[in-house]
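for ur thesis appendix - Small ribosomal subunit protein bS6. copy paste whatever u need, i formatted it the way the template wanted (i think)
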Amino acid sequence: MSAHKYELMLIADPELDERGLKKLVDQFLTVVTDGKGSVEDTDIWGRRKLAYEIDGNLEGNYAVVNYTAEPAVSDELDRQLNLNEQIIRTKILRKDAK
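the 3d part is after this line
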């Protein structure tokens, strides 16, 4: 198996402050680093208005992360993100797919 480049976009609880959001994102990125992957870039966008209501929220805290990892590590990251109640929505895209 070889590592691939991914982009993760997540929307977290709008009640989190920027430090709380960064801590939450960093907590999940340990899944990547523990799985021998690497995190290239973390971009915290902060609180934004949602295009439509999700779980009663009209706003959310956005973060975008570029990382490289094995597919199994990315799957585990996705699984853990979906279990966390502070995460409203996630999307993981494989960047190097042809």
